[in-house]
Amino acid sequence: MKPVQLTLICHGQTEAQRVGRFALDDDPLRELPAPMAGLSTGAHCLSAPELRALQTAQGLGLQATVDERLRDCDSGRWQGLALKQLQHDDLAGLQAWFADPQSAPHGGESVAALCSRVAHWLDSGLAAGEWLVITHPFVIRAAMLHALAAPLDAFQRIDVQPLAQVRLSHSTQWRLQLPS
């Protein structure tokens, strides 16, 4: 049986990432990325629906199909707010969100709900072959946790930089692939 080869690519940098605030759906990239060497031209390509993911696909020269299941975590009423502001205005909520994956003090999606959504997507049966997916740091973190069967509290211990690539493969189970 031919395996699934999945490369998750984080969208390019936004101003929200640079200044440490929760993103808005229509946050643009600071600049379009250049095409990356080594990306398979014959791969199936999917993108999260937000502008920053679509612009990344465009800059990389990829024709991506939007998959709503790859959308960023819903940060509810924290959308657009800086972490520094939340440390002042909602410190207890921010601390709860960092400490408890089930917590959603912002009224949006909890880390646990995001991880469940991403795990379901991964296990929904991507066709065998190569896949490129343009998505968000939180979605990539969730995919890594699922592939490694790691506990949810490990979510806050992973940093995913703009344009980072994470490779997963699946034949009988998900595996994280480190570059050689």
TrEMBL record:
<dbReference type="GO" id="GO:0016787">
    <property type="term" value="F:hydrolase activity"/>
</dbReference>
<dbReference type="Pfam" id="PF00300">
    <property type="entry name" value="His_Phos_1"/>
</dbReference>
<dbReference type="InterPro" id="IPR013078">
    <property type="entry name" value="His_Pase_superF_clade-1"/>
</dbReference>
<dbReference type="InterPro" id="IPR029033">
    <property type="entry name" value="His_PPase_superfam"/>
</dbReference>
<protein>
    <submittedName>
        <fullName>Histidine phosphatase family protein</fullName>
        <ecNumber>3.1.3.-</ecNumber>
    </submittedName>
</protein>
<keyword id="KW-0378">Hydrolase</keyword>
